[in-house]
Amino acid sequence: EVQLVESGGGSVQPGGSLRLSCAASGYIVSDHHTDWVRQAPGKGLEWIGRTRNKARGYTTEYAASVEGRFTISTDESKNSVYLQMNSLKIDDTAVYYCSRSPNGNIEDVWGQGTLVAVSS
Amino acid sequence: EIQMTQSPSSLSASVGDRVTITCRASQGIANSLAWFQQKPGKAPKSLIYATSRLQSGVPSKFSGSGSGTDFTLTISSLQPEDFATYYCQQYITYPFTFGPGTKVEIK
Lengths: 120, 107
Fold this sequence. Notes:
The structure holds 2 protein chains of 2 kinds. By secondary structure, chain A is mostly beta strands. Helix content of chain A is 0%, strand content 50%. Chain A has strands spanning 3-7, 10-12, 18-25, 33-39, 45-51, 60-62, 70-75, 80-85, 94-101, 109-110, 114-118. In chain A, the strands form 2 sheets. In chain A, strands 2, 4, 5, 6, 9, 10 and 11 form a 7-stranded mixed sheet that branches. Chain A has a 4-stranded antiparallel sheet with strand order 1-3-8-7, with no helix packed on it. The model of chain A has no long low-confidence stretch (mean pLDDT 97). By secondary structure, chain B is mostly beta strands. Chain B has strands spanning 4-7, 10-13, 19-25, 33-38, 45-49, 53-54, 62-67, 70-75, 85-90, 97-98, 102-106. In chain B, the strands form 2 sheets. In chain B, strands 2, 4, 5, 6, 9, 10 and 11 form a 7-stranded mixed sheet that branches. In chain B, a hairpin with a 2-residue loop joins strand 7 (62-67) and strand 8. Chain B starts with a strand and ends with a strand. In chain B, 35% of the residues are buried. The A-B interface holds A 35, 37, 44-47, 50, 61-64, 97, 104-113 and B 1, 34, 36, 38, 43-46, 49-50, 55-56, 87, 89, 91, 94-101.
């Protein structure tokens, strides 16, 4: 069964850092692109970034709202993707989801999400 | 950035009703349009990609159509498990962008 499990969320003060993990099972994470999407409390979905697959060199794309502060990386040995979040702001408070995007498809499998709360 | 709009923002419908949700892009996106369903407290679920292609396991009561800037999601016969919020998303240009959502409620 294809599955994604996020972890690493929690409470952090403004300006702090957090690293989220997205552990994949049932497929090889390097074969597919991985997207990160977040949802602020009571709000809609916001795409925040992508790492392309190994064949595309793990190149990345980011939304303007996180560019320069967030970094997506992949660890093949752990079959996992990571979202490093620095210089966190109150507006970054949200549930963060990772999702798989096979070639020709988009976000077909999602994790359960992990909550990040930024407050002083 | 491509802006996505959805209409209506919410609707009330009865079990068995045919429901149509519209999604519009601020510029042409060919057929790079996906639809997602989200229930309260749950992760989104992918329903449709490439405008009209059902994800594996999604029942055929869901269908999608459109091209260019105007798209629709249709639920042919609404069932209790279909009451949820539905989002469209364009994925032809970064950043990928979602519509604001359409909440489907029980009448």
